[in-house]
Amino acid sequence: MRTAVLRPATPNPRLAPWWFGLAAAGSVGITLLFLLIAYPSLVLIASAFGRDGRPTAEFVLAVLRDREVYRTLENSLLVSLGSSLAGTALGGVLAWLVACTDLPGRRLWQVLILIPYMIPPFIGAMAWVYLLGPVGWLNQLWMAITGSDRPLLVIYGAGGTTFALTVYGYPIAYLAILGVLERIDPPLLEAARMSGAGLWRTWRDIALPLARPGVLAGALLLFASSLANFGVPAVLGFPARFFVLPTRIYATVLNYDLRDNLRIAAAMSLWLVALAGCLIAVEGRLVVRERVAVITGRLSGATVVPLGRWRWPVLMSLALFVGITVVFPVAAILLTSLVRAYGLLPVPENLTLQHYATALFRIPKVHRAIRNSLLLGGGAAWGVVLAGLALAYLLRRGRWGGLVRLVATIPYAVPGTVVALSMILAYLRPLPFVGIRLYDTIWILLLAYLSRFLLLGLRTVEAALTQVHPSLEEAARMSGARPLTAFRDVVVPIIRSSLIGGWFLVFIPAVAELTLSALLASAGNETIGVVVFGLHEEGKVALAAAVACVVTLIVLGIHTVALLRGGRWVIWRS
Amino acid sequence: MGDLAELRLEGVGKAFGATWAVRDLTLTVAHGEFLTLLGPSGCGKTTTLRIVAGFVQPTAGRVVLNGRVLTSAADGTSVPPERRGMGMVFQSYAVWPHMTAFQNVAYPLRLRGLAQEEVTRRVRRALELVHLVPFAERYPHELSGGQQQRIALARALVAEPDVLLLDEPLSNLDARLREEMRFEIRDLVERLGITVLYVTHDQTEALSLSDRIAVMQEGRIVQVGTPQEVYERPVDPFVATFLGAANFLPGEVVGRENGAVRVRLLDEAGGPELWISQEASGRVLVCVRPEAIALHPEGPLRGQVERCVYVGSYLDLRVRVGTLSLRVQLPAWERVRAGEEVRLWVRHAVLYPTTTLTTSSGVSAA
Fold first, then answer.
1. For B209-243, what is each residue's pLDDT tens digit?
2. Intra-chain end-to-end CA distance of chain A, in Å
3. Beta strand residue intervals within B235-300, DSSP E
4. Which of residues 128-157 of B touch A (CB under 8 A)?
């Protein structure tokens, strides 16, 4: 029987464009890396060290001499250190309770513990202003009860910022620590029991050392996230004239009276860049140490810690904790958005839906901002996933991996405020040759989002690819598929669910984004985060609360969809 | 090492929901005995081992070591694993990645509060036993799978436990290393004279290591005996096939004499007859291992060689006898070719009532 089977598979002419697609994807990928990251970064550095093409140390020296900058730096470090320590302790205890003890209702607690993670931090900070601002609900209650004319506690300033960063940041440490605790191979603990160790001894000698890299990684992530956070110190710091580096840079960029304000801001950014560099270096050392093999497996009956008589105290503390982190703030936002005027007693005759009506139907920019945010989030998510695929594919066969990965890490490691500033500096003037000005358009936001989130896409795809055994692709090649065809027909379908996960990983933070948009959004191109922040800054409290409610609902909805699609909680640092 | 121990399992059962993983299991492991639980995956052997270790509380029964009740389902007694005086080697080795080989092995001694010199001395001795002294300061990720397994073994032995538990310790090793470790474990255990409970699904491991084997099926022990007993006199076709290849031929008892029976194999031609030293009557199933068949010029079975494969240490044949097909293993020096007519002699066979096996006849290979 003569069949075509014995012939070597001939190239399928229909697939030829895919091969060109590879080259095209490659060049587009490299161009994007340059436009998104390399060029803005270079412009930022050039702006800090020069003017009109001539090098000058003027701005850097000015920043180095400025005492205010040192105070800001100190604030940044204190706030980040405080929230990172507190958040890691909190996250560690919670992760341990959930993963390693017989806590009743684990699944429910797991969801409740992560809710603060789903609330955009600046909205959480606003909620605390409604609770503990000078005329916040709790302070009013206090004054009404005690007859005092002084509020109990005002959340503005260093303490409040640290508190809010902790409350909205601890899930980062929690997820990192939960990750390692869940990956400890139960026989490792059982072997300790067989060696003669009791339950506590086993935890101390085996489990804790195994979890240490996760704890350190969590603390580091949380530190970086707090250091980079703009929204929380903006909401809680500005009223008390309390600045951290991101908010100081933001204020400097907006200070049009200051000569060369952008260059000074660029010089200030170098502090954040240096800190980010240190963090990456420390992180790298940690990863090297973390060669210990922790493998999969669920803790069995013998290694689960019984809470015993601590059961009820633990449950009560958890309930109180969820009350403070979730119930109170959410209630505060809801209440504020529903009373006729902020400060009125929340009795039925004072409640109204009028703020929602105004926000959604009378103020066109709210409408527009919601649309913009969804479009930008979706665009960024698609762009990042596709770019991640293209880059990961190129990296698998090329040898520029180290460089590409380094370049992609820059905008993720560096605080968003710095990324935004570099975008302004790079694209304030029309592009050479084509003469298009990106600043003042929505496209600069898309560029900034892509640049900021690119690493997430790359990492997601690369992590997913490690799950695909090379033999699967090789089998496709042996069946006659070209490299890209094999990639498309075998690899992409296998990692599809990871890609969807990666899509949401970008979409969710992008929809409620504030840090980049605060500096890059222009009239007509607002994002929803900027609108909420703007209303809050203008003192339109009830309106801000109403829109914040809508945003929170949208974000919670997307989270739910992502989770229902079988997604997993992934660590994202703002 | 510690006092030799007698380990007793009395009517032990474990239910997960409505399904019983282990059912009414009674077993005694004598002082210094090496007993293997052998069975296919899911037969309850690992659950049994974990009940003995104290990681699983049984639904029924007791575990008694030297007269001391370790586990009792009836009154909820459960001595925690660390106070049972046992050592255990896990399938995944469970060598702690944050400790060196030395530290791993030293850990049980440190928990017992031994002085530093004593710890060092005994760890060295344990490492010598498993030939790992030069690797004492290495971390697990710097060691091969076999070396990690040796650490696990040294760690389990260093505190001189009464009983050593091994949970499929060789299944993650490659074939050559597995064979090497098999001999090493056997040597070590013989030298220490320790009581061992070993779990495996590999019949070669079980046969070559054990003093006695307990074959398990669906949560029950179906046969306990020495390797020879379970291999040569399996109680039923399941045990026979689980321990090695076997031919199952339908037959009928047609006569008896001096404790032996004459069995006629049932094929269309009215069949050849064999003498088998076992009591039986009526329809039977004749179980013959391939290596229990030999060439003989006057052998009762006449057949034609359908296939002959040279395997190095033996010849693997398929021989058609009437309508039956037999698997036969002959010494490699025999000169036999496919298509040849041969006469065969059965040296050893076991009979089962036909009711024990309705699905299989002819060749069955494990």
1. 999 999 999 999 999 999 999 999 999 999 999 99
2. 65
3. 246-257, 260-265, 273-276, 283-288, 293-295
4. 140-141, 152, 155-156
Paired tokens of A214: 């996760």
Is the confidence at residue A573, as pLDDT, over 50?
no
Q: Smallest Cβ distance to A210: which of B82, B95, B98? A: B98
Cβ atoms of residues A118 and A556 within 8 Å:
yes
Distance from CA of A483 to the nearest CA of B (A): 33
Helix, coil or strand: residue B118: helix
What integer pLDDT is reported at residue A421 of this predicted model?
A: 93
Q: Encoding tokens for residue B361? A: 């006849």
Report how far residue A272's alpha carbon sits from residue A417's, in angstroms, rounded to the nearest whole number. 10
**DSSP labels for A97-137?**
HHHHB--TTHHHHHHHHHHHHHS-HHHHHHHHHHHHSTT-H
* Strand order from edge to edge, sheet including B7-16: B19-29, B7-16, B60-65, B68-72, B77-78
Share of chain A above pLDDT 70, in %: 90
> Contact A538/A554 with Cβ under 8 angstroms?
no
Model pLDDT for residues A92-111, shown as the tens digit of each residue: 999 999 888 888 988 889 88
Say if the Cβ atoms of A300 and B55 lie within 8 Å: yes
Contacts of B81 in chain A (CB under 8 A): 190, 193-194, 302
Which structure tokens are listed for B275? Answer: 């003498």
SS3 labels along A128-151: HHHHHCCCCHHHHHHHHHHCCCCC
**Residue A150 C-alpha from the chain's centroid:** 37
**Sign of the four-CA dihedral A555, A561, A562, A564:** positive
pLDDT at residue number A292:
40
Across the interface, which of A194, A201, A294 has its CB nearest the CB of B81?
A194
Which of residues 42 through 101 in chain B touch A, CB cutoff 8 A? 53-57, 80-83, 86-88, 90-98
CA-nearest of B198, B157, B97 to A290 is: B97
Q: Which of B53, B88, B111 sits opposite A197 (nearest CB)?
A: B111
**Given this model, what pLDDT does residue B314 score?**
92
Using CA atoms, how far apart are residues B231 and B243, in angstroms rounded to an integer? Answer: 6
Rg over CA atoms, chain A:
26
Residue type, B353: P
Within a 13 Å sphere around the CA of A169, how many CA atoms are in the beta-carbon half?
Answer: 34
- Report yes or no: B366 and B246 within 8 Å, Cβ to Cβ: yes
Give the whole-angstrom CA distance, residue B163 versus residue B32.
9
For B111, the closest of A201, A295, A301 (CB atoms) is A201
CB atoms within 10 A of CB A560: 11
Write the pLDDT tens digit of every residue in A435-488.
788 888 899 999 999 999 998 888 888 888 887 777 777 777 777 677 777 787
Handedness of CA A492, A498, A504, A507 (dihedral sign): negative
Q: Is A521 exposed, middle or buried (0-12, 13-18, 19+ CB in 10 A)?
A: buried
Check A190 against B88: CB less than 8 A apart.
yes
For residue A316, list its beta bridge partners. Answer: none
Cross-chain residue pair B92–A194, CB shorter than 8 Å: no
Structure tokens at A462: 């690369």
| Residues of chain B contacting residue A188, judged by C-beta atoms under 8 Å apart | 94, 96
Record the pTM.
0.78
Phi, psi of A229 (to 5 degrees): -65, 130
Residues of A in contact with B166 (CB under 8 A): none
CA end-to-end span of chain B: 38
Decide: B29 and B7 in contact? Cβ < 8 Å. yes
Q: Is residue A186 within a helix (H) or strand (E), and if so which, with residue range?
A: helix A186-194
Compute the count of residue pairs across chains A and B with CB atoms less than 8 Å apart.
Answer: 82
A566 has a pLDDT exceeding 70: no
